[in-house]
Amino acid sequence: MKGAFRNLLVRRQAQRAAALLAVIVAGLMLRGFGYAAGLPFVIVKYGGSALWGAMVYLFVGLFAARSRPAILAVIALFLAISVELFRLYHTPWLDAFRLTTAGALLLGRIFSLWNILAYVIGIVTACMFDPARR
Q1: What is the DSSP letter of 99?
Q2: What torsion do the CA atoms of 63, 64, 65, 66 make, to the nearest 10 degrees?
Q3: What is the pLDDT, as a whole number, of residue 97?
Q4: Residue 47 contacts residue 30 (beta carbons within 8 Å)
Q5: What keywords is this UniProt entry annotated with (predicted)?
Q6: Which residues contact 96 (CB under 8 A, 6 or more apart)?
Q7: Taking Cα atoms as reference points, which of 30, 85, 27 lies closest to residue 56?
Q8: Residue 134 pLDDT more than 80?
Q9: Which of 80, 87, 88, 69 is CA-nearest to residue 116?
Q10: What is the pLDDT of residue 1?
């Protein structure tokens, strides 16, 4: 029985890792080419934020593999809101990092309550499609 559970856990983690990679690629493509493809600002901006929230959920799921999806969602939401609130903190070196591509993608630049809503949508969507729910 332990072997079957272990195989199931490994398969779920592989699916989460594949989903994480797909979400990262989709987010980078949306932010990099969304405007050029003619997508509206709302889709590019908040779609990227929703994908970022989904990424956080999947990343947490890789480290807390045995936790229930609802617990993962709460942890991911806490982390996402913490990062958003961290945008209110400013120092010269941190603001300089935020101006880089990596800084903008990881930490963002400007605090927004709308981003938090987008994170919730992304986290809930990722939770709904989590392989562990099946």
Answers
A1: T
A2: 160
A3: 93
A4: yes
A5: Membrane, Transmembrane, Transmembrane helix
A6: none
A7: 27
A8: no
A9: 80
A10: 57
Closest by CA to 112, choosing from 95, 93, 87, 82, is 87
- Distance between CA atoms of 112 and 103, rounded to whole angstroms? 16
For the record, the structure tokens of 113 come out as 């309550």
Q: Is the pTM of this model over 0.85?
A: yes
**Which two three-digit tokens encode residue 46?**
């908040």
Can you read off the two tokens belonging to residue 112? 């927004």
Alpha-carbon distance 106 to 99, whole Å?
A: 11
Supply angle C-alpha 112, 114, 119, rounded to 5. 100
DSSP H stretches of helix in the chain: 2-33, 41-63, 69-86, 92-98, 101-106, 113-128
User: In the numeric block, which tokens belong to residue 108?
Assistant: 């963002």
